[in-house]
Write a structure and sequence with these properties.
Shape: globular
Order of helices and strands: HEEEEEEEEEEE
Distance between the termini: 72 Å
Helix content: under 10%
Number of helices: 1
Number of strands: 11
Strand order of the largest sheet: 1-3-4-5-6-7-8-11
CATH architecture: Beta Barrel
CATH topology: Lipocalin
Oligomer: single chain
Structural class: mainly beta
């Protein structure tokens, strides 16, 4: 009987610590996002790479970007929680902060980027494949968050913004 009590106690602790796994449905989109969204001024993007020692991210460069998103509905999602995002940008003021082996190790990002957005209430999660590139909150005609994209091939590269500076506005 004592063994059964211990087994029950262990089972209860495991259940409480891991919880029940459920698929939590996404909240209905707070509003439609389709349209052209643009920045009104360039924002600083930071580039870190592992290029110097192939293990530690180091800040290598910065650049300014003026971003435009064209958001369209994803007809394959009947619930309306998925959108397609065509992201393009104009870059300027590329500044090298350090070199290793006469290079920054930065791999230029492809333009335009074809991304997926997952809407949950008034939050938009930006993804490329399974990689998440940021979570943005939105209202009727503005959206803000931090771009945060890490990609890896031979070495990894991290491109990001800070302090919610990434802001785009719906064009009317």
């Amino acid at each position: 009987m004592r063994t059964l009590s211990y087994a029950f106690a262990i089972l209860a602790m495991i259940t409480l610590s891991t919880g029940c796994e459920k698929d939590t449905p996404l909240l209905t989109p707070a509003r439609k996002l389709e349209g052209t969204w643009k920045m009104t001024f360039p924002v600083t993007f930071y580039y870190e790479t592992e290029y110097c020692d192939f293990s530690t991210m180091q800040l290598m460069a910065t650049e300014k970007r003026l971003v435009t998103w064209v958001i369209t509905e994803d007809s394959a999602d009947p619930d309306g929680n998925t959108v397609r995002i065509n992201m393009n940008y104009v870059d300027s003021d590329f500044t090298i902060l350090q070199l290793c082996m006469n290079s920054t190790g930065i791999t230029p990002e492809v333009r335009p980027m074809f991304l997926t957005g997952i809407i949950n209430g008034d939050f938009l999660t930006i993804k490329s494949g399974s990689a998440e590139f940021g979570v943005f909150n939105f209202t009727t005609d503005n959206m803000e968050g931090n771009w945060d994209a890490t990609t890896c091939s031979i070495w990894c590269q991290h491109v990001y913004t800070v302090q919610q500076e990434f802001k785009v506005y719906l064009q009317h």
